[in-house]
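Subject: Crp/Fnr family transcriptional regulator structure
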Amino acid sequence: MPFSRREDSPSEKTILELLSRSTPDTVRDLPRKDDVLYFQGDEALFLYAVSSGEVLTLLESPYGDPVLWEVLDRYDAVGGFAILLGCPYPATCRALTPARVFGYSRQKVWDLLRNDPGLFESLAKGIGDRLQSFLSRLVYSQQNLEDRLLLGLLYLYRKKIRSAPDRSSPVVLEITRSFLARLSFTTVESTIRVTKKWESEGWLDFPERGLIRLLDIRHFLVKTAHLSMHESPQNPRGREKWDARLNPV
């Protein structure tokens, strides 16, 4: 089976179980960074699941550089929005690192979904969560520079701890400051200036080229507590979630 269950991703768990019971219709290798899986506007033929490596999705624009939508790593699915709605792919998908993806045809996905309507809800929820995350980043694109960079790091940290949930140790993010700048809607120069300041304050460092290490996770969570991607910490439900984040079991 191409996939095993990932216990720490409940919104996509049944999707992965679905895919693991079915043989992929195609396997695509993306051996180099920036290799294209599909372009924005291409006909949506497959729902893809990342088997290894990382890919990213980009919203192309005639008015400037593409906007980075999201980063997808192992077990994430990409192309689900287009498969469900029967529309072209809404964004371009490229390799961030060498990657392999499994593709499942539209017909196969719909046949499997018809056998279990709950799978449709699960796939839609996963898409909705990721769209909400992107819209939150757009909202904060109007905020001050440090908040935008913090939100970018928060997004990457949350993806990282899915596979490395030990919050007592430093977390290493395999990204460049150039990539963080794109994720945070700012310039490389501004990102370097702010992260150097944070390095002098002792809550992150750069162990080697292409790595950012978050040294004090609790301090990082406190600094990002007002930047919820989904819930406001001002309402009771939001406060419960933030209390759980700041006091991990």
